[in-house]
Amino acid sequence: MSQERWSAVDDYLTDMLAPADEALTAALADSDAAGLPAIGVTPPQGKFLHLLARLQGARTILEIGTLGGYSTMWLARALPEDGRLISLEYSPEHADVARANLARAGLDKVAEVRTGAALDTLPRLADEGAGPFDLVFIDADKPNNPRYAEWALRLTRPGSLVVVDNVVRGGAITDESSRDPAVIATRELFDLVARDPRLDATALQTVGGKGYDGMLLARVAA
Question: What values do phi and psi take at 17, rounded to 5?
Fold first, then answer.
């Protein structure tokens, strides 16, 4: 099947099950206008994250990688009024776009965007006692995914859910000889998750408007 067909199915699923509202549409438009890369989740994936958070009964969410705040909005909308979401974004420019999008959606009281390298801000969260988080969504620079997963374990509890995006890499994940840092790190991530007795995990291949990739889902068991 072609990319064109995948995108058409995504459009159908979006129209039927994840229709955009004014705030979501504006968030995408403002992200495009600001020159942010079009690498965020698709609407069906955003709705998937939203439902995961609701099924999890999440009251606290950690997101690593904010971009323009589109996935942040889907996750934040799953929280109760007294819930809390902290999203970590490396780029100050991207963070500014995300904060504006969250404010327009009325989610800035629930969702907070912190700027800086995540491997610097994650220890600060631990020092603050910010966790444990009920759900962690990792969608940032791929070479650091193994380190992000290690931090996710430190900042969660038994029963928490960890979701990592872009783990199939267009099928390149099976290439043991790859020199792509994202592929090398993602294979290390799978090794880490498979070996850690505290994690019960699976991964799903996905196709759609953003091509061929996949997500890893891991429940913290103990």
Answer: -125, -20
